[in-house]
Amino acid sequence: MKLLGLSTLLAFSAAAHAVVIGNLSSSALIVQNDDGQMPYIIDSDDAAAPKKRGLSYNDPNLTKNFGSKLTWAYNWGQTPGNLPKKYNYVPMLWGLKSGLPNSWHANAEKAIKQGATHLLGFNEPDNAGQANMSPATAAAAWKKYMQPFAGKAKLCSPAITNGGPPAGQAWLDSFLKACTGCRIDCIAIHIYDSPSNVAYFKEYISGVGKKYKKPVWVTEFGTFSGSEQQQVAFMKQMLPFLDGLSSVERYAYFMDGQGILVDSSGRLTPLGQAYNSD
């Protein structure tokens, strides 16, 4: 174990939108977000390089072959299944369909007790094929189902698409305006485009951080076009960018599924190997 130098510590604090407010030992630091909420403890050995990379998954059995670079996971659901304990699980209230809110409070409380530090709310409410909610409906639902957890966990905004108005950021702007008194600790976004359009991905993600001035969670990003070689090249360009951009707090490629990051047995594909690399 080692104590961080001041310059390294300050660099981490800036990247994590946090300040160090004390220490417990030579290897543990007490860190507080810059909004003054929820102090938490980190190991100083890991403090210089906060880990952002995670998995979006449906089958937890397909998450087992990834290394220590990946630290968290979510499945668009409320319970992790048999997700390996090495991942910090983040539950989501996907939307208002199929009675999902009925089980939310108990499942979110349980997840927090088991170590969940964040909660995700509403999957692509700006998309008719997903949660499909108006900003006003989403704001009312947020106040009823998400806001009660303010102070117990960090609350990430509804995950919007990168579509144009009235979807995407236009939808989020209307939601934030309608959601008076709501606690929003981080902004969740999804973004898809061509693997050759890396500049667009970088510009869009950077712009979200600058606009909303909150930590950004890229909970889905990817491309469904191009060859495997082009997709791997895209991945190798995006990972250093996401790891280095201080406004991005966490990100997850879409997805840990067969034919994308893994095969049917859970072995990493070339794209999965790229995502698993340093």
TrEMBL record:
Q: Which GO terms describe its biological process?
A: fungal-type cell wall polysaccharide metabolic process
The molecular function GO annotations come to:
hydrolase activity
Origin: domain of life: Eukaryota
Residues in a coiled coil are none
Q: Where is the Asl1-like glycosyl hydrolase catalytic domain?
A: 54-275
Signal peptide per UniProt: 1-18
> What are the alphabetically sorted keywords of the record?
Hydrolase, Signal
Write the protein's name: Glycoside hydrolase family 128 protein
